[in-house]
Amino acid sequence: MVSTEFLERPLPKPTDEGYITARLLEALVEAGLALEFLRRGLVRNAAGKAFQAWRAYMAALMRLEFEKLKAVAKSEEERRWLKSTAVPRLPTTKMKKLSQMLEDVGHVGLSFVVDKALDLHDYQYHGPDPDGALSKYTSREEAARDVVALLRELARQVEALKTRVKWGEDLERALEEVKRGLK
Question: How many domains does the chain contain in total?
Answer without folding.
Answer: 1
